[in-house]
């Protein structure tokens, strides 16, 4: 048996002999450094703000894209034309339902040649906010919400 045998790590290393659940033991233990206190529960605000900012940037990208005006029809017709200016590029050009690659480039998409040879280091920051399409945006935002809010509540904002 190891030296840790019989010790309950969740309650600060002391042996938990009570019938109470481990969460209750952690709250009641004075030696525990991490005790859940509902009075100090963290409300996440940073992650939802990032989600809103990402969606706003995607809407701006679709506005700038303006598929009905800029699509010359070589790859097919715009998808969801009822959206007007916000319709998506043809699926052959962008299967993720989003703007054209030229729009993403114009808005600061990451191209190593521009960063290295043309000294456009700002693209290293702007590319973080750009998404190739609705599917890309949805996958990233779901990951951010499910993981990010939990982390923000666990560790706080760092203040």
TrEMBL record:
For this record, the Gene Ontology CC terms, alphabetical, are: membrane
What GO terms in the biological process aspect are recorded for it? proteolysis
Q: Which residues form the Peptidase S54 rhomboid domain?
A: 119-157
Q: How does it sit in the membrane?
A: Multi-pass membrane protein
Q: Give the Gene Ontology MF terms in alphabetical order.
A: serine-type endopeptidase activity
Q: PANTHER family, alphabetically? A: RHOMBOID-LIKE PROTEIN 3, RHOMBOID-RELATED
What is this protein called in UniProt? RHOMBOID-like protein
Which species is the source of this protein?
A: Arachis hypogaea (Peanut)
């Amino acid at each position: 048996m190891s030296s840790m045998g019989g010790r309950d790590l969740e309650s600060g290393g002391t042996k938990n002999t009570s019938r109470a659940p481990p969460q209750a033991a952690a709250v009641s233990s004075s030696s525990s450094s991490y005790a859940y206190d509902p009075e100090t529960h963290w409300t996440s605000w940073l992650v939802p703000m990032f989600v809103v900012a990402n969606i706003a940037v995607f809407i701006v990208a679709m506005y700038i894209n303006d598929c009905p005006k800029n699509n010359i029809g070589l790859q097919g017709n715009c998808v969801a034309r009822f959206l007007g200016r916000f319709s998506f590029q043809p699926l052959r050009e962008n299967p993720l339902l989003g703007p054209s690659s030229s729009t993403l480039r114009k808005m600061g998409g990451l191209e190593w040649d521009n960063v290295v040879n043309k000294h456009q280091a700002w693209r290293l920051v702007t590319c973080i906010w750009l998404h190739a399409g609705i599917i890309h945006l949805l996958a990233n935002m779901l990951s951010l919400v499910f993981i990010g809010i939990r982390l923000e509540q666990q560790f706080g904002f760092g203040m």
